[in-house]
Design a protein that fits this description.
Distance between the termini: 99 Å
Radius of gyration: 33 Å
Structural class: alpha+beta
Order of helices and strands: HHEHEEHE
Mean pLDDT: 82
Number of strands: 4
Helix content: 25-40%
Low-confidence stretches: none
Number of helices: 4
Strand content: 25-35%
Largest sheet: 4 strands, antiparallel
Length: about 140
């Protein structure tokens, strides 16, 4: 009981001797910008990607060989997008943004004359472009 009274006495006497003061925060002015940036709502991705298929036409360790194959492909199929990636030690030429394997198979069959060793790979693709119908007015 004496310890409880002694601790209560100490607590109340320490409150009476409490001091007030000011706290000054010194910080870099760029911190406010970072906090505002992190708190902002992020817009949706510019190029959302989905699971899909592409056709791998060619791979080589020389970028010039990839560019030649890409030029050949673009001259014959200008409406299909091409993608060049580098995974050491080779460059890879992949084409198309196909949602289904069937779509990729149809295009691959057309390409067999020019790229007989092409094959279909599954990877993240960009959403295919929507073509506007031409209407006669």
């Amino acid at each position: 009981m004496k310890t409880i009274l002694a601790s209560a006495f100490f607590f109340f006497t320490s409150l009476s001797f409490a001091q007030s003061g000011d706290v000054t925060i010194i910080k870099d002015s760029r911190i406010d910008g970072l906090v505002a940036k992190e708190g902002a709502i992020a817009p949706p991705a510019i190029n959302p990607q989905i699971d899909g298929f592409r056709i791998q036409l060619f791979f080589d360790s020389e970028r010039s060989a990839i560019n030649d194959a890409r030029g050949t492909f673009i001259s014959k199929y200008p409406r299909i997008d091409t993608y060049t990636t580098y995974i050491a030690p080779n460059f890879f030429l992949r084409v198309g943004d196909f949602r289904t394997r069937l779509e990729a198979e149809k295009v691959k069959d057309e390409l067999n004359d020019y790229f007989p060793t092409s094959f279909i790979v599954m990877e993240k693709i960009n959403l295919p472009r929507l073509e506007k119908e031409k209407r006669d007015q």
